[in-house]
């Protein structure tokens, strides 16, 4: 009964506009490919001792925003098209990437701060002193 309910719930989600979670869209396969690519690129760093250990290769967040320009290889696309992916989704994905790289990425990149291993920005936790926050017990000495 649990399996039947799971299939019914999944069938309801299939029509929703979440292409990154739907295996019949190219976004799903491209996202999986990018994450695999990030992980494989970390393995040589682990093998040559540039990062702590094998567990640190699983911390792929270090390269979360790397390889966004990587798309599925051309030889994989016909295989996915035979399964269920529509060829138009590959073209749409590349158009979205062109718009992103032209308009959004330059503006978004200015504000992104790469997280460090240690938290060292304690000033961000201190409230700015304003007139309302000042202790005015010493403001007038009588």
Helix content: 40-55%
Residue stretches low in confidence (pLDDT < 50, at least 5 long) are: none
Count of distinct strands:
0
- Round the Cα radius of gyration to an integer and report it: 24 Å
Q: Name the assembly state.
A: single chain
The biggest sheet, with number of strands, parallel, antiparallel or mixed sense and barrel status, is: none
User: What structural class is derived from the secondary structure elements?
Assistant: mainly alpha
Work out the strand percent: under 5%
Q: What sequence of helices (H) and strands (E) makes up the elements?
A: HHHH
Explain this structure.
With 142 residues, the chain is mostly helical. The protein is 45% helix and 0% strand.
Essential attributes:
mainly alpha, 142 residues, 4 helices
Nutshell version of this structure?
The protein has 142 residues and is mostly helical. It is built from 4 helices and no strands.
Helices, strands, pairings?
Elements: H1 2-14, H2 26-47, H3 77-83, H4 87-108
